[in-house]
Write a sequence for this structure.
């Protein structure tokens, strides 16, 4: 998931203000600026035009400026209501416009939207700078903090603390010359991240591997071959078939391709997408961002960016993170080495005694080894995982059983792309709770990966129910059914009744990893949909990075609960449930060769930290970046050609383009929390409504309104998380297969 940036601003240039005045009439009709007539105030994409975004930003920015001016110009003494709450409310229109616009730039970035983004981002960063360094505004906030902190409680106190601390962390207490430098750094990082986003999208699209003949695709099933054909056509048809590169280092099709040379081409295209000599080399951007972040930290009095960034997390310090990682690495390495040897020994049975396993061979021979040892193949299993059945009969069913939620498709609410679906969510009393949008299929205008965000956050103050969306990158489909599925009717539903139609009527099938991705992102969605907070700023997923991934990782556990699994694992053609023997083998196979997944995550995590532990004077140049990556992995014992980082430095979007700088460790950190919470559910009854209600009341509904560790402890009864659960859950506490 990529968290929505909170847009904070105060002013803009006189030129923009003049532009607003010159087109006032047109802007009064702008659908982004008025009240939506749709349920929940959902954005009306049937009325919004690309040309609406820039004037909407202009008006919203001006409104923010006016609202801040009123706060600063208030002659009354600063109070919680006239300063903190007023500031909370000052940018609501700008936040609304930004949420709609940036949802599209992430998921459907047309050239026109890209051009608007180039114009808007510098203005937004300038606005954020003016807010962060507005001395009269901060003085009022500080007065409230000093005078009323001891008399406030609950969400009021939390809002005050979060507001004050955010200003301090952005540099409000810095001397004038350091403030000016911080402003310049903020602007430059914004420019670089915009360049990064454009480069990564273009590089990943251009890294496609063209295939001249169907014969070279031997090993793929008919649906995958058809997808390769469609991908080729959608990308200009330079050859009859195309293999599209996913955002991760390893590529799913490598598990099936018989042609070793083609496997090598696909792998090389993936790992070198952004480090060649062409226009897509990203190392100059990486180096400059890392150096600027280090300088930011130094301006704030920290030795490096990691120390600065981690201060506001559960982990608190780099030492705590490294201690956590080192304990995992020590246990992981021997298991991984044994796993690699086992795969190579297996490959030599057919490839010859001198065969040397390469990273592009690993998935291929691991899949064959699994098929032989467990008598199961990924292709056989995929026949039982259709997109719509996993969603309606799995994800929604689990949410119904655990939390009492029901889902009804709304075909009357417009979306930004025809592949999307919208569901209205109801609580156990049948009362409307949220809107949920699904955008699951890949396209050239969508960035890689999967994420959750929202068009509107929950807030009791404004009477706003959450409007949440999930975005994934599954094989693209067309001709989706409009039949809505209500959870109360799911006992009678069958996947063939609601399948999204893949090319030429073939069903859209998922791998097990994609099944868990669907559950994962919906865990984020639940965190947003079940929020029950007064202030929008504190609601939903507005929590520390090393807590925000916990609900999503926990929600993955529902995928393998027998009752849930049996409900969605239905054959794509017959609708029959997965046979008991195949189901047993499938569930046993989940942790087959599981050291790889942990290793690639550990390697990426350590790269992230290595870059952000540096003082500005030691940040490598673009030319030194690859050597730095190798050295960093060597130092922690993770330089392993067989298990490369999940993301190499050159295309690590979480870190250079997203909000996870010095924070990628949070996926492993929160997995520990999630495993501990899953253990509680298992003890009480995995789908027990009382347990679900308890988890919702103590964790999911609370947003950032209290101490996060206390929330965890309140539900689990544990004073501290138990990290041993992670290795057990991944099947790494015993010898590898």
């Amino acid at each position: 998931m990529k968290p929505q940036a909170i847009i904070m601003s105060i002013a803009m240039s006189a030129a923009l203000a003049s532009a607003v005045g010159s087109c006032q009439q047109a802007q009064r009709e702008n659908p982004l600026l008025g009240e939506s007539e749709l349920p929940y105030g959902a954005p009306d994409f049937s009325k919004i035009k690309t040309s609406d975004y820039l004037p909407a930003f202009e008006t919203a920015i001006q409104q923010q400026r006016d609202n801040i001016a009123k706060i600063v110009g208030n002659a009354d003494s600063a109070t919680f209501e006239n300063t903190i709450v007023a500031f909370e409310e000052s940018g609501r229109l700008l936040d609304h416009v930004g949420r709609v616009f940036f949802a599209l730039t992430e998921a459907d970035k047309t050239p026109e939207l890209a051009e608007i983004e180039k114009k808007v981002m510098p203005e937004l960063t300038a606005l954020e700078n003016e807010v962060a360094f507005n001395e009269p505004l901060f003085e009022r906030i500080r007065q409230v903090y000093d005078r009323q902190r001891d008399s406030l409680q609950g969400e009021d106190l939390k809002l005050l603390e979060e507001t004050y601390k955010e200003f301090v962390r952005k540099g409000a207490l810095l001397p004038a010359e350091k403030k000016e430098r911080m402003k310049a750094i903020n602007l430059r990082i914004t420019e670089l991240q915009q360049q990064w986003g454009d480069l990564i999208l273009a590089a990943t699209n251009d890294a496609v591997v063209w295939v001249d003949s169907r014969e070279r695709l031997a090993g793929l099933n008919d649906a995958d071959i058809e997808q390769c054909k469609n991908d080729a056509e959608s990308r200009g048809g330079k050859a009859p078939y195309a293999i599209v590169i996913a955002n991760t280092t390893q590529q799913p099709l490598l598990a099936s391709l018989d042609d070793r040379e083609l496997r090598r081409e696909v792998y090389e295209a993936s790992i070198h997408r952004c480090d060649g000599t062409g226009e897509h080399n990203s190392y100059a951007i990486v180096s400059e961002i890392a150096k600027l972040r280090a300088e930011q930290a130094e301006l704030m009095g920290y030795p490096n960016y990691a120390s600065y960034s981690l201060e506001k997390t559960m982990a608190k310090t780099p030492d705590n993170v490294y201690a956590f990682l080192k304990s995992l690495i020590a246990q992981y390495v021997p298991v991984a080495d044994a796993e690699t040897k086992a795969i190579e020994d297996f490959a030599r049975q057919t490839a010859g005694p001198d065969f040397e396993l390469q990273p592009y061979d690993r998935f291929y021979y691991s899949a064959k080894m699994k098929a032989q040892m467990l008598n199961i193949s990924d292709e056989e299993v995929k026949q039982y995982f259709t997109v719509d059945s996993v969603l309606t009969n799995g994800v929604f069913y689990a949410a119904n059983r655990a939390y009492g939620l029901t889902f009804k498709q709304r075909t009357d609410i417009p979306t930004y792309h025809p592949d999307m679906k919208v569901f209205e969510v109801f609580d156990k009393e049948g009362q409307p709770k949220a809107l949920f949008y699904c955008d699951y299929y890949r396209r050239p205008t969508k960035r890689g990966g999967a994420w959750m965000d929202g068009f509107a956050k929950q807030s009791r103050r404004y009477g706003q129910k959450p409007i949440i969306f999930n975005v994934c990158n599954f094989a693209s489909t067309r001709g989706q059914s409009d039949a809505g599925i209500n959870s109360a009717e799911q006992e009678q539903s069958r996947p063939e009744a609601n399948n999204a139609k893949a090319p030429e009527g073939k069903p859209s099938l998922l791998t097990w990893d994609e099944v868990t991705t669907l559950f994962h992102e919906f865990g984020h969605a639940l965190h947003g949909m079940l929020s029950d907070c007064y202030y929008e700023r504190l609601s939903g997923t507005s929590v520390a990075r090393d807590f925000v991934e916990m609900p999503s990782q926990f929600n993955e556990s529902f995928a393998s609960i027998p009752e849930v699994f049996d409900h969605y694992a239905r054959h794509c053609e017959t609708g029959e449930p997965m046979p008991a023997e195949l189901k047993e083998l499938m569930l046993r196979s989940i942790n087959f060769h599981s050291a790889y997944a942990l290793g690639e995550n550990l390697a990426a995590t350590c790269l992230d930290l290595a870059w952000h532990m540096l003082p500005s004077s030691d940040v490598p140049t673009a030319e030194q970046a690859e050597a730095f990556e190798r050295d960093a992995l060597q130092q922690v014992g993770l330089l392993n050609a067989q298990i490369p980082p999940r993301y190499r430095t050159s295309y690590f979007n979480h870190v250079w383009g997203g909000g996870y700088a010095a924070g990628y460790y949070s996926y492993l950190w929160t997995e520990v929390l999630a495993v501990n919470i899953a253990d509680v559910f298992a003890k009480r009854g995995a789908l027990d409504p009382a347990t679900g209600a308890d988890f919702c009341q103590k964790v999911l509904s609370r947003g950032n309104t209290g101490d996060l560790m206390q929330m965890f402890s309140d539900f689990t009864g544990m004073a501290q998380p138990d990290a041993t659960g992670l290795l057990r859950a991944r099947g790494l506490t015993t010898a590898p297969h």
About this structure: Residues 1-28, 477-501 have pLDDT under 50 and may be disordered. The first strand starts at residue 209 and ends at 211. Strands lie at 209-211, 241-243, 406-409, 421-426, 432-441, 451-456, 467-474. The CA atoms of residues 277 and 682 lie 52 Å apart.
